[in-house]
Amino acid sequence: GQQVMQIPQYQHVQEGEDFTTYCNSSTTLSNIQWYKQRPGGHPVFLIQLVKSGEVKKQKRLTFQFGEAKKNSSLHITATQTTDVGTYFCAGVPTSYDKVIFGPGTSLSVIP
Amino acid sequence: EPEVTQTPSHQVTQMGQEVILRCVPISNHLYFYWYRQILGQKVEFLVSFYNNEISEKSEIFDDQFSVERPDGSNFTLKIRSTKLEDSAMYFCASYNNEQFFGPGTRLTVL
Which residue of B has its CA nearest to A96? Predict the structure, then answer.
C-alpha cells in the first residue's frame, strides 16, 4: 500500500543550530502537508504544498516539495526551544479523501 | 478563530463495550476525518467523510467502526465491541484549504 517515510526519527540539536526532516512517499502525491505536534497536544497544520518543486517559507521554516511530487523537506533555521515537538509530513495521494501521515521526526532543542 | 471540538476528552471502557466519540467540525468545511494515534506512534488515517458519506476508509476501519453525521454539526465515530488494542487518541479533523485537528479523545480500553 501507499507509504510515507520520514527521517530522521529523532533529532537533538543545540539551540541555534539548523534542523531538517525529510519525507518520502512510495507514490506520487497530489499534495503534501506538514504538521507540528507538541507532547500531549494535537497535530497543528503548518503548510500545504501542491506544485512540483514548490518552496514556501514561514519565518525560520522552509518547506520544499520535490519535482516528482514524491518527496518533501522541512528546514528550520536557527532552532529555538519553542520548536520542540514532532514534525509530521502527510501525503495526499489523489483527492482529499485520504491523508497518509509519516512516522514523524521528534525534535529536541538543547538550550 | 474557528475550532474543532471533541467530547469526551477521556473515555474509559471495558473490553467488549461500545463507545461513541463525538466531534463538532468547523461548520463550513467540506471534508471530515477521523484519525487515531497510539501513544508515541504516528497518526493513522481511519476514514474520510464528504458530502454526507464515507469517501475513503483505511484497512483499520473495519466493521467494528462506523461514522455518522446525524445532524448538520455533529460527526461521530462509533466503535463496537472495543478491544484492548483500540486504546489510543482519536482525533477528528476538518479540512478547507487547511486541516484543523480537534484536541482528541483519549480512549482507554480495560
Answer: B31
> CA of B48 to nearest chain A CA: how many angstroms apart?
6
Query: How far apart (Å, rounded) are the C-alpha atoms in residues B58 and B64?
Result: 13
Contacts of A96 in chain B (CB under 8 A): 31, 48, 50, 95
Place of cell 503534501: A32
Asked if B48 and A102 come within 8 Å (Cβ–Cβ), the reply is: no
With CB atoms and an 8 Å threshold, state whether B45 touches A98. Answer: yes
Q: How far apart are the first and last CA of chain B?
A: 37
End-to-end CA distance of chain A: 41
Contact A36/A60 with Cβ under 8 angstroms? Answer: no
Cα torsion angle, B29, B30, B36, B41, sign: negative
pLDDT in tens, chain A (111 residues): 789 999 999 999 999 999 999 999 999 999 999 999 999 999 999 999 999 999 999 999 999 999 999 999 999 999 999 999 999 999 999 777 889 999 999 999 999
Q: Of A76, A83, A101, A111, give the one whose Cα is nearest residue B38.
A: A101
Subunit contact B91:A33, Cβ cutoff 8 A = no
Burial class from Cβ neighbours inside 10 Å (0-12, 13-18, 19+) for residue A111 reads exposed
CA distance B86 to chain A (A): 18
Measure Cα distances from B13 to B24, B46, B65 in Å: 22, 20, 16
